[in-house]
Fold these 2 entries.
Entry 1:
Amino acid sequence: MLNFYWKTFLQFTRKIHSHIGRRCQSTRLNETISNSASWSTLLMTAGFTCCFVSNLDDKVVTYTMVSGSSMQPCLNPIGSKCNDRVLIDRSPKRNYKKLKRGELVIYRTTRNPDEVNIKRLVALEGDTVTTLGYKNRSVLVPTGHCWVEGDNHRFSDDSNVVGPVPLGLISGRATHIIYPPSRWGSLCRRFPHSRVKLNPCEKDTVSHLPDVICGIS
Amino acid sequence: MNMSKTWQRMFHTLGAAFIGYTILDSSIQISVFSGPSMEPTIQENDVGLVEKLTPYKKFQRGDIVIATSPDNPSIQICKRILALEGGRITSDGSYALWREKRVVPRGHVWLEGDNKDNSTDSRQFGAIPLGLVHCRLLAKISPKVEWLATSNIPVNSS
């Protein structure tokens, strides 16, 4: 990610710097002023771009590389030459109510806060989940929590291993695959209809969703 | 021309303001506290200076931290860390699972308010993942400036 930002930042600052330099060179009077002024302008542009990109990355949209096979075949399918990069939308951080079942989310893991996982959000509070390998066969998701699962259940460190995940740990929603170009496209919502029973107070908004395609066929 | 100098000044001022805001916003925060759960250390409507720079591994027992509530992600709670991962819990709580287990699991912390009788904390909802904790209180700035030391760990904790 750092490489990408560095290249964008260099191109951006060079463009602005040359544009401002051209304006300052319009008369001879400005020759002496422009030399010292242009260094500070360059620094300022550099700082501004860094801060702008950092704010954008943290609050609006970012991208990340997906590693591992827990979301196969949706992400990093077998036979793919390189890891997928996905576009992350940060709007769930501002309003958790906008999260929808079936979306791919990124969250800090409960066992290691420095690690971020990407999984599918299959159940929200009040839903009843029939688990795969969890200590309880059936779980009622508590308030403020959600249930996340990787599509490839056997190789997935998800709620089936650690239990319900607090919503506060979710830091974004993955909406599109942006690299490699052959795999461009949006990520659709999928829902394991057979294993999740919706919160009775909730209107049914998932019956139209396709079922999850599991990694092991 | 005078125009380009004015533009430059304006650009510099806006740029500096934006850079300053970003740096400050990512490192510190001024928070107003409400609720009785941290009395007498923090009273209702006190204002504090919190810092967001501590990495997860550097949080210590006795730190007063602000975390996202595990019951409601829109609410921030302010409590003291009483135990880190691997630590033992002896305080009596209604969260039966933790009373049995008595050890804070990996990646979690045990939070309690200083006002034991009037605080909803880990005794009710269990140890919370460190990923929910995001700031540490450095000092109170209202009603009077007080630097909060981390050595004030209540005597009756383990």
Entry 2:
Amino acid sequence: MGAHLGRRYLWDAEAEPDPLNMPSFPAELGLPGRQPRAMVASAAQLAQARVPLEQRDFCGHHLLRLLRCQRDTFPVPWQCHPLRHRWDSCQHEDYVMRMKEFERERRLRLRQQRLRQRHGDGDGDSE
Amino acid sequence: MAAGALRGVLWPRAAAGLRAARAALAAPAGARAASEMSQDMMPGPYPRTPEERAAAAKKYNMRVEDYQPYPDDGLGYGDYPMLPNKSQYERDPWYQWDQPDMRHNWGEPMHWDFDMYIRNRVDTSPTVVPWHTMSKHFLLFLSIMLIMFGLGEIYPSYRPVGPKQYPFNDLYLEKGGDPNKKPPTVIHYEI
């Protein structure tokens, strides 16, 4: 798990993505026809349910359904397991998307480095 | 009215007379109970001559060689002996003291701060490990922890994932943004 940390702190910080400055490349680069993420629940619904800000993400609609089910079936805990699973798998997909974003950033940075080297060599040779 | 004024004068006088009679019956003025110490047993002034020192040592039940009064520099305690500043905890717990809880024998000279050195209070026992070893270990530990925490601040550890994406322009209004101003547009894409 620490390979990216070793590369960033001990090796080449230019090639490793900085999680505080992401994404640093245009969204359409290399991925033509990208769709924006769709938000199903509205801000008013999330505010009415008093969902904590950290949980008002793109899986908010699953969370709202889960909370509604838990409120309706209290104190029986096992009846909302399917909804719980749907919310959890939505969070998992979201995390996998974050990993893919990181990897995309890293590959674009490496590509940028290669282009710079190539242009650098080209200028050196032409001189 | 005259009778009332007289009554106000008479009864305190009667009470004073009664008190004096009771006191005279108990003991004459200046007397002390037999359980108290006589004047020659009380602490006295700083001993100047060797005879005074010998007399003071005898008074405190000490040998003349052991007897050492506090120095007479204006802050001394007269002829009261200067005993080592050791608490009662340092005394042998297995010896059969006359007073086991105080670890003190009858007639033994008591330290000036005896009530401070009892086992419920100040304890001057030596540490199990020498002081410089203890302080070295502690400073080593503290410095290593501080250095590691500092390194953790400069080079933080994180998972190889991008930041979490939030809708509604990164929750602009929910985080207290001005509703009258146009928020900076943030669009997140699927990948």
